[in-house]
Structure to design on (105 residues):
């Protein structure tokens, strides 16, 4: 199981730890990734997502996971969230098409 944020794509960083004597040792810094459950009312389901602490704050600020997914960049999102994004967009587009069809009639 990878330590990667599904929304922002943040993963482990690597670099050197430098001591007082200037000895360099390779090290790895893991992101603060947590499992978080969100309710998606448009699809009527609950989803568990792996998010970094910064992404959780962003989701809360934007007003929910659906808005964060719709505003998020596709190249950084996981395949699972991209599939969810397409489902949400399709669900939102269906009423708009019905309204447009009713106006033409």
């Amino acid at each position: 199981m990878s330590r990667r944020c599904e929304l922002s794509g943040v993963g482990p960083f690597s670099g050197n730890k430098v001591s007082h004597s200037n000895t360099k040792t390779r090290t790895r810094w893991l992101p603060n990734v947590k499992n978080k459950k969100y309710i998606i009312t448009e699809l009527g389901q609950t989803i568990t997502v792996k998010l970094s602490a910064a992404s959780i704050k962003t989701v809360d600020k934007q007003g929910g996971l659906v808005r964060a997914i719709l505003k998020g960049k596709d190249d950084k999102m996981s395949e699972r969230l991209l599939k969810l994004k397409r489902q949400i967009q399709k669900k939102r587009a269906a009423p708009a098409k019905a309204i447009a069809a009713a106006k033409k009639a």
Summary: The two ends are 53 Å apart (CA to CA). The chain has a mean pLDDT of 92. The longest helix spans residues 79-104.
